[in-house]
Specification:
Layout: H1 11-14, H2 25-33, H3 40-43, E1 45-46, E2 54-63, E3 66-78, E4 81-84, E5 96-98, E6 101-104, E7 114-123, E8 141-145, E9 155-156, E10 166-171, E11 188-194, E12 208-213, E13 228-233, E14 236-246, E15 260-264, H4 269-278
Length: 280
Amino acid sequence: MVHPTSQQQSRPARRRLARTAAVGAAAAVAVTGLAGTAGAVVNGEDSTQRYSFMVSIPQVMQTPEGTVEGVCGGTLIAPQWVVTAAHCAGHPDLPTDPAGTVRIGSEYQSKGGTVRAIAKKVLHPDYAVGHDAYRGHDDIALLKLDRPVAQQPARIADRDPKQGAQTRVIGFGNTVDAPGWSFAERLQQLDTRRIADSACSPFKPGSELCTGSLVPGAMACQGDSGGPQIQRIGGRWQLVGATSGDGNPAAGPQCGNGPGVWTSVPAHKSWIMKTIWKNR
């Protein structure tokens, strides 16, 4: 969900990081422009409130045509720590890397909020890039910032949302569910719900969240990877998921045609806490 690929590729390949650097010049221009429009995540809406914990993570990819720029999402979970997708954190088998800084707490991808440098990256030890078009499981990573920030972190929920529970996803990803690319400058949100695990494949029960949209033809897309899925608990938003990828390859190439998969953050809470403690 970071950079463009050709429209002939399968939906799961479009919704995650491709392992190849074969990106056309026209696609590179579309991504580096980062020109957003309203009505996105795909078919979401402009954010209606401030999310102090939202993080945008600029990405770079080396291709035969040169450097391509993109974006991933993340969630501030402590004053100096961000959780994101492992495929956004610079896996050695993938051609993309974080550009080196993140922006925290802004409604806009390229202005406002607080900018910090990435001091350390820790990928989940069980994450592995798939040997086919599908994403890997345990797709979660932590970024340590060079200095703490003043923004309010998101609390990690104690447990996954129940099936049918309403959630929300937010991100700066692609707003166009067709050939062509338009990453959002204004933060987008989409109301969603947890659906049956059986609706998503490939899927790792107990470790991932199968998620459907409450809006027809809408879902997270390229550029939304790593960003938060949140649930309102006790009157405040709590973090339940990190955007991972496609939920149903058979649904076709458009992101809005089917469900999505989020890595369960509550399921990985023990690893998160241990990692922060070891790297304090």
